C-alpha cells in the first residue's frame, strides 16, 4: 500500500472509531523495533517514539502492566526483543522513569541469531535484558521460544515452546513470567489450555470493533505502526483504530477472538 493511500485509509478508520462505543480499559500499546530502517509497519521511527514518550509523559498515566487492569491508563509493551529497545527506547523511558513490559522471544537472545532477516533485527543480549529488568522499570513476559504461529502447532508442540521459553527466562533472569503475548496476536485453541494454566494474563493483537474485554486470557493490545507517526498515534490512544485492525484481521485470514 502506498504511503498516501495508507494515510487516507487511516483518516477513514479514525472517523470510523468515532462511531463506535468508547474503547474501555487501559491502552496497552504494542511496539517492536524503534528505528532500524526496515520500513516494516512494526517499526517506529526514533523521532516518532520520542514524541510518543513526551506526549504520554504530559497527557497520560503510564503504569506497569500489573497495575493496569480496571484503569484508563496506558501500558507500553515491546514484543520479540530487538536490540533497539535497549539502544533507542530504554534511555528515553529511563529518563522519564516510564515503566514498560518486554514480551521476550527467547531463541534470538539465547543464540544471538536474529528472529528475522531485515534491517534492525539484531536481538537483545541477556545482559541487556537483565540491566533493564534491574532498573525496576521493566516487567518481563513470555512470547515463546522460536515465535511460531500457535494455530499450526499441536498441544504437545505448544507445551515444548512454552517450557523452553519459561525455563530460559527463569534461568537467565531469576524470575518466572506471569504474562504471555500470543505471537502474531493470534489466539489458538491448541494453546489456550496451556496458556491459561501457566500465566495470569494473556494478550492478543489489536482489538476488533466490538472487543471482548472480560477474559484476562483474551486481552487486546493496540499496535503502534510506522505509518502512524505522531498524528495517528493520538487516534491509537483514543480509539485504537479498531476498523483498521478489523480489516487487517480479515486480510490475514484470522477469524479468532
Could you give a short account of the major beta sheet? 5 strands, parallel
- At CATH level 2, the architecture is Alpha-Beta Barrel
How would you describe the shape? Answer: globular
Strand order of the largest sheet: 6-5-4-1-9
The name of the CATH topology is TIM Barrel
Give the key terms.
TIM Barrel, alpha/beta, five-stranded parallel beta sheet, globular, 9 helices, two-stranded parallel sheet
Describe the model:
The two termini are 26 Å apart. The protein has one domain: Alpha-Beta Barrel (TIM Barrel). The longest helix is centred in the middle third of the chain and has 19 residues, at 155-173. It is an alpha/beta fold and 257 residues long. 40% of the residues lie in helices and 13% in strands. A 5-stranded parallel beta sheet has the order 6-5-4-1-9. The protein has a two-stranded parallel sheet with strand order 2-3. Strands 7-8 form a two-stranded parallel sheet. It is built from 9 helices and 9 strands.
List strands and helices in order, with pairings:
Layout lengths: L2 H16 L8 E5 L1 E2 L8 E2 L1 H14 L14 E7 L2 H14 L3 E5 L1 H6 L14 H9 L3 E5 L12 H19 L5 E3 L10 H7 L2 E3 L18 E2 L9 H7 L2 H10 L6
Parallel strand pairs: 1-4, 1-9, 2-3, 4-5, 5-6, 7-8
